[in-house]
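Incident review: delayed structure delivery

Summary: a single-chain prediction request sat in the queue longer than the usual turnaround. Root cause was a stuck worker, restarted by the on-call engineer. No data loss occurred. The affected request and its eventual output are reproduced below so the record is complete for anyone auditing the incident later.

Affected input:
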Amino acid sequence: MSIVGADKIGWVHIEDRRLLVGRNAGARRFYLPGGSREEGETDVEVLVREAAEELGVTLDPSTARHVGSYVARRDNSADDLIFIVYSAAHTGAPRPSMEVVELRWVTSADGDVVTDAERQLMGTLIGRDLID
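Output delivered after worker restart:
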C-alpha cells in the first residue's frame, strides 16, 4: 500500500441532513463531487472548477470552509489518497454533468454505496450532528 501523490478535493453539500454524492459512468460506488488538482491550483480553485464541471453549480470561493482531511483507500486500488473536503455556498441546482451520470442524497445508512473516503467523512458529519 502507498499514498498516491495527488490529493482529491471534494465538496460537502448537505440538505435535509443528507449528503450529496455522485456516480461516474461504469462506477459502482458514489463519491463527493470534486477531483484532482491541476498544476498550480489551490484547493479552493479545484473545488470551484470541479463543482462547475461535474454539477453545473457555481461555488462562492469566499465561503469555502475546510471540513476535514482523510487518508483513504482509493476505490478499486491498493493505494491510498489524501482526501481534503470543503463546504461552500453555491448558486444553481446540482445536476449530473460531464462524467457524473447519477446524483444521490445519502445518510449514515448508505455507507455501503460510497467509497472509503466518503464513509470517513460521514463519520465526521454524524459526529457533528449534520447528517442522519
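Verification: The chain has a mean pLDDT of 91.
Action items: add queue-age alerting; document worker restart procedure.
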